[in-house]
Design goal:
Layout: E1 11-15, E2 21-24, H1 27-36, E3 42-45, H2 48-73, H3 76-79, H4 89-176
Helix pairs in contact: 1-4, 2-4
Length: 182
Amino acid sequence: MGDTAELKPVAWRVKDYADGWIIYTDEKRARIESVVMSGALVEPLYSADALSSLVRERDEARELVTEANNSLYGSQGYFHSLNGGPFDKYHLATGIEKLKSGANRQYHAFEAAEARATAAEAERDEEREALEELEAASDALAATRSQQTYLSMIDNDRATDALNRLDVARKRARNALGGKDE
């Protein structure tokens, strides 16, 4: 079996509100769009070449399993062949070791993919929290502006009342001093 190279997506698709798909070439942008759309589904897309290498490895693994299965359930003489045929003890052990090695590589590849998925989920959670904080700050700013406008209106009313009282007091003082009202 060939070495399992880490598959890298060539693009990402994000499920939109109308059950369609939006394609992004940048993973980070796709994840941000997913947060904006309240956790929309994000799927990686792979090239056909990358997927064909997995099919080839799967087929090779199937051949090894078939070979091991035939040797285990074949006749005793066939299983214990010492003539160097495909099912003698040496070839059987080699096939089983290759099978174990391939399974081990696949297990580690799966673990790595799972770790990437967990990290992406954590990153999406952080982005969602940042967006919620931004929205809360925006709401607080709007409330503060509204409050300031209200207080400014009250201050203007108080200043107008004070000017009106001052004008009335000035008129009374002029009248008291014997002057005319203007």
